[in-house]
Amino acid sequence: TFSCPENAAFFEKLLREKRIGVVLFQWADGKRFPFAREAARCGVPVIAAIRTDPCFYERRFRGNGLRSKVKRFLRFRRQAKIYRGNAACCARTVLLSERFVPGFLKHFPRGASPRVCAIPNPAFCAEASVDFSAKKKELLFVGRMEMAVKQPQLLLRVWRKLQTRFPAWSLCLVGGAHDFDAVKKLAGTLGLERVHFEGFQNPEPYYRDASIFCMTSAYEGFPNVLVEAASFGCVPVAFDSFAAARDIISDGENGCLVPAFDLDAYAETLARPMSDDALRERLARNALAQIPEKFSPEKIGAQWEALLQGKNRAMNGLPIKNAAADGFRICWLDTGTDWLGVFSELRAGVDAWMADSARLLQTSAADGKFVRKTWKVRLDAKWGGAS
């Protein structure tokens, strides 16, 4: 298995040799961290980060039939086992929104008090200014073409209700995935006009051109695309289908929230800013203004530093024991790809962090991962590791 003795021994050796101060366990909603005991023996706390809605299965299996109810029940039990297991062996659990905390706590026995806090994602691409006069009359979708979660097919059905009423407007969809062909075929079946499928692209030029950004997801953790779109002067519109949507959008003030999965309501909600230039610009300006106040890298980074350095009261002082004089290192484990890397010292600054992150991503799969088949682990020599 992944947690074989060879992997565990390598992980413990890495923690000691690199003087790792914290292990950040990403995507802790999907599986348990197998090396928590090794980290504990080294005196290294583990932070479990849940990067989605802890109750995502309630939206994914939202039907009223027996099959959906059984799926929700079984997924609840599975997630409860994962969350409880990680909370028992990790120093902290980090969610993406305070609004997710009640749902997370539902997975624990009454009276249990897992150590949990919330830190949202930052917005890295906020524009200094936006020329609203250059905006096109365009609705924009950016995301995976995935019918089960992102639900672009719902936006196509909404557009069918609007395309005749607003002949000057168009719909642009940026992104790909396994449902791309099916979604594109649906557009033809519905007889849609002025719909453009761009595939995988850098979304920034599309954010600059579009006037309104549309999200139709069944659930999200903290959707970066909503914040990114707002930072480029798009009016964000989304289903009220996940708790963190209200962290980003105040309905009628800096965007629009639509009752979950009500397509008629979505169409009428879009029609208001589409037909009113002044309203559209007011919503977009308000959305843009909140980005540096709430989601700048400096503000979000300060929350992480407070957590890691024990200055966050909710964290009760994270016990960093392996700190060096010039800061401390973080060991980052992404269970989605199963490779291990060492981030630069926090105090080296964001430029060094970005450089090290880019270098890590360029590491070949064979040199930057735990190798399951041979039960051996290797780390590329440029990171100072050993096989």
TrEMBL record:
This is Glycosyltransferase. InterPro entries: Glyco_trans_1 (IPR001296). One of its GO terms (molecular function) is glycosyltransferase activity. Gene3D superfamilies: Glycogen Phosphorylase B. It comes from the Bacteria. Residues 132-287 form the Glycosyl transferase family domain.
